[in-house]
Automatic annotation (TrEMBL):
Protein name stated in the entry: N-acetyltransferase
Sample GO molecular function, one term: acyltransferase activity, transferring groups other than amino-acyl groups
UniProt organism field: Flavobacterium arcticum
Gene3D superfamilies: 3.40.630.30
Matches recorded under PROSITE patterns: GNAT (PS51186)
Keywords, in A-Z order: Transferase
InterPro entries per the UniProt record, alphabetical: Acyl_CoA_acyltransferase, GNAT_dom
Membrane-spanning intervals of the chain: none
Amino acid sequence: MVTLQGENIYLRALEPDDLEFVYQMENNEVVWEVSNTITPYSRFLIRQYLENAHQDIFEAKQLRLAICKNDSFEAIGLIDLFDFDPVNKRAGVGIVIKETANRNIGFGGQALKLLINYAFTRLQLHQLYANINTENVPSIALFTNFGFVCTGIKKDWNKRVNKYTDEAMYQLIHQS
């Protein structure tokens, strides 16, 4: 599993034992803001999702991986390829680290680097993109650090409590 192994973390497929972790992540209202979700998920629905997580990206059109520290099997975050388009060879990228203590110390950067490498070498994608709220400075810094470029702003795109916020489209095109 060298492709998905980093210096301090590794990426792995979701397991049935990840039910509580995914349940907590999907029902965290802070995460809802970055995933454009407003509905809670039941353990039943997440169990069904995990039972179908064996589908490959060509079937499911998405790939969700657990981010784990090298010395543990326990997930600290999730990283996704979504809206997988095999014809145009592109996919969206999403990442979330659960605990504040595990943020801004390099785990997200290592996970993103591994996923970019996997997407371009194993999946042969031409481009990756990320939709990021323009107020989310840490995410913008993370993605731009890996070469993602802002290609447009969607004005008043997402409603947050009592205001609308802009969302930026960032793209990374593989130069082969």
